[in-house]
Amino acid sequence: MDPPGRSNFSKEGDERRWKVEIASMFRSRPFHLLLLLCTLLCSCANPHFRVASEGPPSAAPRAVQLQREKQVANLHFPRGLYAFYAVDDKGFYYRAPRPVLQHEGSRTVSRDGGIFVDKRNPQKLRGYIYFAGALTHVGNLSRTPHILVK
Question: How many separate domains does the chain show?
Answer without folding.
Answer: 2
